[in-house]
Amino acid sequence: MDDDSALIAELAQVALVSVAPDELMIFDETAEEYFTDPEAALTASGRDAAVGFGLELAMITPIALSVGSAVMQAVVGHLAGRALDAGQTGLAALARRVFKRPAQQPDLTLTTAQAQQVRATAFERARALGLPDAQAHLLADSFVGAIATAG
Amino acid sequence: MTTRLRPNVLAHPSPTTGRFLLLVAALASAGLLTGSSFYTITHQAEFSAAMKTCLAAIRGPEATSTEEMLARAALVTECLAPQQRLDAIYSLAGAVAIGVLGLIVMLFVPMVLRRRRRLRPAGPNMAAAVARVGELAAETGLRRAPTVMVGPMGHRDAFVFGLPGRYQIVLPMALMVRWRNSELFDPVVRHEIAHLRRHDVLMAWLAASVWLAAPAIFAVLLVPLMLRLDASFILQYSWRMGLLIGLVWLVRRQLLRSREHDADLHVARQMRDWRPLWRVLSATAAHSQVSWRRWISNHPGAAHRQQVLVDPATGPGVSFVDGLVAAFLAGLLFPVLVRAVGAVTDFNLAPIVAALATGPLLGLAVGAGLWRQALIDHAAGTRRWPGGAVIGVVTGLLLAYFTEFASIIGDDAPVSWPTIALTVVVGAGAVLLSASTGRLWADAAAGLPAGRTTWTIGVVVNALFFGIAIWLLGFLPVYLDVFTTAGVGLAYPLVILGAIVAPIAYLAIIPAVVTMYALVARRKKADVPAWLIDSAHTGIADVARKPGLGAVLACSVAAGLVAAAGVLMHRFAVGPPVDDTDSLSRYLVWLSAGTLVALAVSFASVVMIPRSGGAIGLVAGAVTAITAGLFIVSINTFGFGNILDLKFWWTTTLAITAQWFLGYLLILPLALVTWFAPWRDVPGWLHTTVSLTAAVTTATLVAGVAIAASG
To answer: The Peptidase M48 domain covers which part of the protein (chain B) (predicted)?
Structure first.
């Protein structure tokens, strides 16, 4: 798992604490499977197969990881200018500095408006991936909370 | 007020079992037919040469009598026996090949499934969930818990697979991690374990495996067809096989759908509450289905499953497709079996053996299903219409007629409209006879033995009903053709009908006795038996209890006497016969009087008594026909001093009964019209009055017409 993926996983893991704590016990293997083939992890296989209960029970973890990717991109987008000024080029490094910002770099904090935009992005992605509204809200809030509390 | 109880639909043989048998029979038939067609294509020249030799052996002046014609036909059959045996061997080889290939595929299915779906045993981090599966399996009574497997994240459904003793349950990760959520986890796992408990895993996967194996066998036939480079042969074979495959596909999907309902109800019964599973189904994605998808999907829609959980009486009964496929297969298999059995044993016995082999197919898939529905309706206070099954069976038999595989090579025989009419009448009649008798049987539920004994009787009776129907369809068209070709008129076939029908008449005694027993047992006024319901409380079902057996028998015997009186009236009016031709026409008056009076009595029962009228008409008509025959020959012997010939007595009585039965099949579809009539009981005096009025009117008309014709 590369640095970018590791950071997304870290962020998703924090968000899952409130959204789907049960899934944390298999988080590592789920994350690994997701990063190997994100599309497959997010798509249901064998619908209306010859045998089966007829369930359509999806894990939240791949959705959280996908939302995590979108959140990362949004955050990087907001802070790209300031990152260049600060001499950071890597996405992971930049994000790490947002989420685990040292005290001497207060300028890398998200504004309230930016945080709201990040939340909206997270919510939209979660909804697009089929998460019900209530869970999508919770997941989006968890991500914003994870960003806010990560430092 | 109607008594509505929650029926225990699991107390009866499941429709899934019937459908599985249908599927196996369908695929075996496909094998038989492929083998037979292979023989026809590869040995066509050899067969033609044998046929020429055999026909040369009987060449000579034209046959002067029907007996001589039949003797010559028997000679040709005997001469062709080696070819027929070869045909039978090829047919059997085709069926065995599909079966063996299917079993091989089934052995490899678990391995392929694990690889294709990337399944793996649940890891140690899911040990708690695995332990919970073990607990639930033990609660259900499974001796050995299935191995718990998980798949990739895209896998979101639960299912079971594997071979006996090595079953595996596959659960989605999302469910495994929620094992503490018993409202979600337990019902789903219990449902999958119910599949194991009900032994339908092997059934479903065997069906899937044979389905996968079958195309390989079908393709084998294409090789010699291609070598012949004749597109018409390929076309003839392909559309027939396409039809068969299409029907197999439909029934396979029906099987998969009905097993889901069975497993759902099993869980509800086990948990003594249907609500937990109902709530899980509320949350599933495929909540409802558009109507056409219900016919082709692998799963019933969640909304339908919920409905069946709440009211099991709304679950799947005998459908149009069941009737269609079962009748199609029976109709298709019968001639193949006649040829195969005839090649190795007495050719005259072959149709009876073939009918006894194909009858159970329809008896189980359609007849037993209708009896099951009748017992469910008995507890639930419903009255489901058997029209779908009737139409399905008739359509299936007609399809089989048009699909006769023997005509793949050579000219198609011209369409015979009398055969088509007979097919419709006999097919519909047999289904309604089964449905009506099932109703009568259900009315007597309080006095019946529980469970297996009742079901064994049901299966035997229905196998006989449909066996007789198939035999009639195999023999009647040929019988009519022979006599039409011979130009002997109607009299001779009617006279010898009794002798031909005799072997089957003995078999008909069993359903008749069972029906009479039900007529007695339904008089008992008691609660719906516990084995038929799925609730703590019971009650007395609203069933028909009148007329009783005594009234029906008395009325029928009186009607038989009326028929004999009509014959006597004719005799007094026209005097003794003057020559053999006159004697023969008198004999036809006997047969007509007995037959038509018996039909009038049956007609009265079918019209007056909704639902079980068909069964009561069976008893009333049969007793009338038999007593009419006996009274008529008794008067002839003891009243007019003719010789006492018991064989003549027997064949006369049988001829009347056989004619009545054929006519009765024509009347039976009326039961569909009266099915929903609101009344239940018809007092014995009313039934007797109407029946006897009909009998007297009919006997008078027959005698009057006969007297007028003599004058």
So the answer is: 132-310
